[in-house]
Amino acid sequence: MNIKEKFGLKVKALRIEKNFSIEQLANISNVDRNYISDIEKGQRNVSIEIIEKIIHALDVDFATFFNDKSFKR
Amino acid sequence: MNIKEKFGLKVKALRIEKNFSIEQLANISNVDRNYISDIEKGQRNVSIEIIEKIIHALDVDFATFFNDKSFKR
């Protein structure tokens, strides 16, 4: 699995944990819903500004988000 | 300080801690040295693929890299 796919799966897992729809996450993060859908599928090479918007919308910080075995080397 | 600047400062701090020149980090990460220079100045909205290349070249993983008070909300 590549880093885009790992990132997407983690976004999706946290979104579902928070009981957010893609639409809700889009509204809170101010990122387009189609873009979020693509991110969750691992199809977007997201920028650090988009990463920040999404993970803050999911109410976590960078360290918490990336503290997951899927991101270990 | 915005997220691009925070990211750049952390890259620079770790690079210096490792005693790497920008040139060396460029060679190890396979990212252009001018691009790395811009990143350290906070001038690039880096993608997750570039982030991965750089932090692995710095011999840390995502959780370690972002586990820094500068990235707290």
The dominant shape of chain A is globular
The quaternary structure here is: homodimer
Q: Which chain pair shows the most residues in contact? A: A-B, 21 and 21 residues
Specify the CATH homologous superfamily of chain A. lambda repressor-like DNA-binding domains
The largest sheet of chain A, given as strand count, sense and whether it forms a barrel, is:
none
Indicate the CATH class of chain A.
Mainly Alpha
> How many domains, in number, for the residues of chain A?
1
By CATH, the topology of chain A is 434 Repressor (Amino-terminal Domain)
Q: What series of H and E elements makes up the topology of chain A? A: HHHHH
Number of helices of chain A: 5
DSSP, total strands of chain A? 0
Structural write-up:
Chains A, B: This is Helix-turn-helix domain-containing protein. Two copies of one chain form a homodimer. Chain A is 63% helix and 0% strand. Chain A has 73 residues and is mainly alpha-helical. Chain A has one domain: lambda repressor-like DNA-binding domains (434 Repressor (Amino-terminal Domain), Orthogonal Bundle), CATH 1.10.260. In chain A, α2 packs across α4 (48-57). At the A-B interface, α1, α4 and α5 of A face α1, α4 and α5 of B.
